[in-house]
Amino acid sequence: MQSVISGFGEHLGSVLGALVVTVLVAAFNWPFRWLRRKGEKAMAVYLGATPDELSRHREAVVARLGKDPVTLVEDPGPDARAKAIRDANVFVGLYGLEYGPREDGGKSAGHREFELAAARPGGRSLRLWQVDEVQAWLRVPPTPEPALLHELTAEVKEHTPKSMPLEPRDLAQQVAAAVREVRRAQVPESRYLDSLLEPRSFVLGALVAVGASLYFTIRIAATGAPASFTTVLLLSLACGVVAYLVRAGASIAFLR
């Protein structure tokens, strides 16, 4: 072990090669993420919801979708609402046990959003989550509009909504996955781009490259081979690229 450690001083080129690989991997992370966002087709998402009792869930969804190529629209007002829903690729609806204030003595904003989305054929997908009446974790006061709430609840149930998760983070993940599913259905070629720009493929390649650089540095120092900055750099990067391509290729093969 002592000979290996002392060998590092004699193989400074190899050590520098390992350090350069690590720095390159870290530096490439930002442009990789930028390329992923630019390469993916942005989805127009309309987020509709009943009011306050789901505020934490709604905030989590907004924060999560902000990490993806998404144009998000929330309650643009009565005048712009119909066009925004018509232009959206996905309508995400979150419905709880509150109804909300009525607009101009009629129905609430959340109710009208849903009816516009449900009446719009083609070109847009409904992705709905609803609080079940038996979900004890949500405590809200009795709504002043029980008849209208019952009407909205029944209309939403006709479209087979998913049960609202307890944790806002879980809902955010489910919504992000649903938006990704719709994008892949509407733009089939995006499935393969997703695989090539999959963050987990990059992470795997990065870990393999860094691990390989350390391995080659230790091996060269232990065997007494001549120090080689270039050898460690090229071999490590090659291992990382191969790992990335294997992971991305496996993902594309799975899609087929």
TrEMBL record:
InterPro entries named among the record's database cross-references: DUF4062
Keywords carried by this UniProt record: Membrane, Transmembrane, Transmembrane helix
Regions annotated as coiled coil: none
Source taxon at top rank: Bacteria
Residue ranges occupied by any DUF4062 domain in the UniProt entry: 45-117
Positions of transmembrane segments: 12-32, 201-221, 227-246
Identification of the protein by name: DUF4062 domain-containing protein
Originating species: Paractinoplanes brasiliensis
Source lineage: Bacteria, Bacillati, Actinomycetota, Actinomycetes, Micromonosporales
